[in-house]
Amino acid sequence: MNVDVTQDFALIPHKGFGFIRGVHDPDDWDQICDLEIRDSDVFVITYPKSGTIWMQQILLLIEAGGDVTSISQVEKNGDLVPWIEVKGSREAFIKAPSPRLSVSHLLSEFLPAALSRKKGKVIYVARNPKDVLVSYFHFHKLANMLETPKDFDDFFEKFLTDRVFGGSWFKHVKTWYSHREDMNMLFITYEEMIQDLSSVVKRICSFLGKDLTEEQLTNVVKHSTFKNMKKIPQASYEQVSVDLLNHSKGMFMRKGTIGDWKNHFTVAQSERFDQIFHREMQDFPLSFIWDIRDLK
Ligand code: A3P
């Protein structure tokens, strides 16, 4: 990542989205959409804190047929499955050999327009937004490119008024979901991955046209569980420079569960969130699991 750590990392509004100064280059913002797409290109799209690095690990393992040793040569998985919007990624993408694997937190209008002509593939991962909010609150404490929150209540307000990188969770999920017919898109949830990682990995393989043996599938799942990813430095982002992540303030791989919001939200905050969720999502047939005890 060519992040410029001398910058102040302020959010710069552009066409309804806030980019991060020093992390994102204004020269890229309106040019990513013109990138030519190969059929083998795969984009993982997430609102931040919805399982991006988990999918990076899964995709790399699928490509490697489950062989974890062959993907351990880098500092972090983001070197192999980069964020397309981060400085330097766009140029690298043009020259990269196939299959090009990328991740992104951008809204659909910034991504290559060719995706809407069913070129390439999109995997969208959504996570229940109460857990996203909590995970993002903790991440803001360790990520130097994000403003350190005053406290949880302050961050709660910022999230609900779209004053965070990624903008409105509702807008992100709804606009991407509305493209599921015009793009080659697999729409999955973080909670499904927690519930049955093996069947999600099989769905991803079938979506990507990858024919793995049972043993290879078992290895993909094994090396992408929370417990095992935590032990793999490039998968857990433990080796990322302290200029970007202050590891003394927390971990990327924090809890990896469903329902931690219950340890943070007050009853009043939860009720207010539910009202907003109901209002925003009433026309969208998307349901989420909010508590680990609700898994079947
Ligand atoms: P928590 O902070 O709730 O633990 P992203 O990669 O989009 O930033 O998302 C980070 C979140 O995904 C963190 O959530 C992290 O712990 C969780 N995560 C990463 N790998 C995971 C895994 N193998 N299993 C479960 N959760 C995982």
Give a quick rundown of the structure.
The protein has 296 residues and is an alpha/beta fold. It is 36% helix and 9% strand. It has one domain: Rossmann fold.
**Secondary structural class:** alpha/beta
What percent strand? 5-15%
Small ligands present: adenosine-3'-5'-diphosphate
| Cα-atom radius of gyration | 18 Å
Structure explained in plain terms:
The structure is a single chain. The chain is an alpha/beta fold and 296 residues long. It has a single domain (23-294), classed as Rossmann fold. 36% of the residues lie in helices and 9% in strands. It is built from twelve helices and six strands. The chain has helices at 26-29, 52-63, 89-95, 129-142, 152-160, 169-177, 190-195, 197-208, 214-222, 226-230, 233-236, 267-281, and strands spanning 11-14, 17-20, 42-46, 101-104, 121-126, 185-189. The longest helix is centred in the C-terminal third of the chain and has 15 residues, at 267-281. Bound molecules: adenosine-3'-5'-diphosphate. Adenosine-3'-5'-diphosphate binds at residues 46, 48-54, 131, 135, 138, 224-226, 229, 253-256, 260.
List the defining traits of the structure above.
12 helices, alpha/beta, Rossmann fold, binds adenosine-3'-5'-diphosphate, 9% strand, 296 residues, globular, four-stranded parallel β-sheet, 36% helix, single chain, 6 strands, two-stranded antiparallel sheet
SSE topology sketch:
Elements: E1 11-14, E2 17-20, H1 26-29, E3 42-46, H2 52-63, H3 89-95, E4 101-104, E5 121-126, H4 129-142, H5 152-160, H6 169-177, E6 185-189, H7 190-195, H8 197-208, H9 214-222, H10 226-230, H11 233-236, H12 267-281
Parallel strand pairs: 3-4, 3-5, 5-6
Antiparallel strand pairs: 1-2
Helix pairs in contact: 8-9
